[in-house]
Amino acid sequence: MVNKLNAIALIAILSACATKADSKPASNSPNAPTGTAVSSTDTSAPATSASQSAAPATPPGQYKLSPDDSRRVPNELGHIPVVEYHLIVNRDAQYSRDREHFKRDLADIYRRGYRPVTISQLLDRKIDLPRGLSPIVFVFDDASPSQFSYIENNGKLEIDPNSGMGIWLAFRKTHPDWDNRAVFCLLSGAAAGHNFFGNHGIDGQKDEWRFKKVQFLHDQGFEVCNHTLWHANLGKYSDAVVQEQIARGQLAIDSALPNFKVRTFALPLGVWPKNRALAKTGSWTDPKTHQVTRYNNEAILEVSGGPTKSPYDPTFNPLSITRIEMIGNQLTQILDKIDKNGTRYVSDGDPSKVAKPAAVPADK
């Protein structure tokens, strides 16, 4: 049995991985299932951080459950997929997802009984899903306009239906129990259209729209994440530059969302700084104003590594959350595997308890 408040034993081992070349800076920088018995432990979950103001999630009674969902055996020590997207465009590649493929991803994930949550919900251990459903975390890296674009229609701003956000909202309209829960890891000083979803005037994306997009994300319940200033390979730089990159990324978010508490940091390229502790905590002093910006990240996202552990697992490490890169059919293979092995996180529908099968399967 596991107590939700005492289950987390943070480990200090942090792993690194790197896969792509770093970006350059801008020039101007309801039925119980049959099967295995379930055990549970009474507890109470802590409140969500007050700084994470968000639109209300779908009320439990309004989630749509399929017969397959109702038959799943609860296992809140199982694995949670954290999926990683980059560009949402017209082709599949290592760092891009075809728009039609992205639509199929959403439909398949929904059909499998997954519903979106944020990293903050993992940190706060507030995964309030009905019995039989499973959490999944969507993360969008690099803040490109392909993820979130506006178009002007008769002098009125509208979300581009061909952008990732447009596709997400269209899916939610036909699936109302699909909450606005995803994580957007932002760059604020990168070139090539990775500056708070702005494109420096290219493709019609105006700079003055950038803050509106970040504010929309926050207001609608999405989570905002720091991804550094311009996506520097932190393993190549001094401690001073590492802290500047992370602190200035946080400072930029604050300029769009004053007093917002950034909790999550995604490692550019999956590369750790030589002094790994600086990925979590550090500071930078502006040489002109002498203003000191400090950061203290509660969660750090790796670039790969497969589905992450449950926050109720004693070995869960929020400072090394593994992800699944959305390349080819990799996600399908992983979801099939954790279903087959019985290592999938499945909610028991009771947020005051942690449920696990009487015999927890070995991870294969």
Give a structural overview:
This protein is α/β, with parallel strands linked by helices and 364 residues long. 21% of the residues lie in helices and 20% in strands. The protein contains 7 helices and 16 strands. The strands form 5 sheets. Strands 2, 5, 6, 9, 10, 11, 14 and 15 form an 8-stranded parallel β-sheet that branches. It has a two-stranded antiparallel ribbon with strand order 1-16. Strands 3-4 form a two-stranded parallel ribbon. Helix 2 packs parallel to helix 4 (164-174). The chain is globular, with a radius of gyration of 20 Å.
The radius of gyration computed from the alpha-carbon positions, rounded to a whole number of angstroms, is 20 Å
How widely separated are the two ends?
22 Å
Level of helix content? 10-25%
Low-confidence stretches: 1-54
DSSP E strands, number: 16
Shape: globular
Return the average pLDDT rounded to an integer. Answer: 85
Which oligomeric form is depicted?
A: single chain
Q: Secondary-structure element sequence? A: EHEEEHEHEEEHEHEHEEEEEHE
